[in-house]
Design a protein that fits this description.
single chain; 71% helix
Length: 343
């Protein structure tokens, strides 16, 4: 209740006490593997891990997620679906530490969770939810492989997820939320091609992703990632007019959803300034650069965590759609406590 109310400090304190009680009970001999105490202990540690993750203490969050995985394996076995969720959570947290040496471990953990989800798919009473879980794990794997520059594996994972997402959407034509995964996966596939220098293929996929995003409206903030990437590619191929058009749209969305401040807003202004300078519009370019610098001066000033702006842009594939994954897992009766929403 404290966590849901936003009282993170007291929630963490109470959870620590609860974990101590459960640990003492388990160590006293009154509990045994498979007892409810072990599962309650895992649940408490999982939530504490999420709190540390949201506080950007990824190292401690990873330690706690590792404890949860060990407990779930001991109590439920390696092939239980809750163990798979714990494995997936640990993969996400390790990836968010930013340490290159953890990428392979994250990939291994995500693959294990994927195998378990697939094996449970036919036994699930809610195949659509189970399919969505598989889609999200494949999306995460694709992002991890992309960070590892294993483009063939990344492409394979995203294409598999895209096939499944389209199947789910076709089975639920009246539910537009099923299109969210398709938009995200098309965007990820475009990023893979973009990273490899295949600009025209990436352009087609970004446009396809944008078309799906427009189902949810022209001005929602999730469109910014696609518009920004389209602007980047048009700039790279020398189409300055379209590059300017798309980045201006990103700028409008940023102001509407994030206000007049923030590092991302400054970055977009700088990009527009560069485009305008290349187009010969030096006066407008200088105005953009000046506004960007003014914003960055304010950004560099110390600010509390509570007042930190939420970035509109985050790299897709690691933590992107994390809340959606959490909701899906909770609907399926699986606990999911590693993180809040995206890399």
């Amino acid at each position: 209740a404290l966590y849901q109310a936003g009282d993170i400090k007291h929630a963490a304190h109470d959870l620590s006490q609860l974990i101590h009680i459960y640990s003492t009970t388990a160590a006293s001999g009154t509990s045994y593997p498979g007892d409810i105490v072990g599962l309650n202990l895992a649940s408490a540690i999982a939530l504490l891990g999420r709190i540390h993750f949201e506080s950007k203490d990824c190292d401690r969050a990873a330690e706690l997620c590792q404890e949860v995985l060990h407990l779930r394996c001991s109590v439920l076995g390696e092939c239980h679906i809750d163990t798979a969720a714990a494995s997936y959570n640990l993969a996400l947290v390790l990836a968010e530490t930013g340490r290159v040496e953890f990428i392979q471990e994250s990939i291994s953990l995500a693959k294990k969770s994927l195998d378990i989800f697939i094996s449970h798919r036919h036994a699930s009473q809610s195949s659509a939810v189970q399919a969505s879980c598989i889609i999200q794990v494949l999306l995460t794997l694709g992002g991890l492989y992309l960070r590892d520059e294993s483009f063939a594996n990344a492409t394979y994972c995203i294409n598999k997820a895209l096939q499944l997402a389209r199947k789910v959407a076709s089975e639920h034509p009246s539910d537009p939320t099923k299109l969210v995964d398709i938009a995200d996966l098309l965007f990820m596939l475009a990023q893979i091609f973009h990273r490899q220098g295949h600009s025209h293929a990436a352009l087609e996929l970004y446009h396809e992703s944008l078309q799906v995003e427009r189902v949810f409206g022209e001005e929602h903030k999730e469109m910014a990632s696609v518009l920004f990437s389209l602007g980047q590619i048009y700039h790279e191929v020398g189409d300055l007019g379209r590059a300017f058009e798309y980045q201006e749209h990103v700028l409008q969305l940023s102001r509407r959803h994030l206000g007049e401040q923030g590092e991302f807003l400054a970055r977009v202004l700088t990009i527009i300034g560069n485009i305008q300078n290349e187009r010969g519009n030096t006066e407008d370019a200088m105005a953009r650069f000046t506004e960007s610098e003014r914003i960055m001066v304010q950004v560099r000033q110390p600010q509390s965590v509570e007042n930190s702006p939420i970035t509109l842009m985050s790299l897709l594939g690691i933590a992107h759609n994390l809340q959606a994954v959490a909701d899906l897992f909770q609907n399926y009766g699986i606990e999911f406590h590693p993180a809040a929403a995206a890399a």
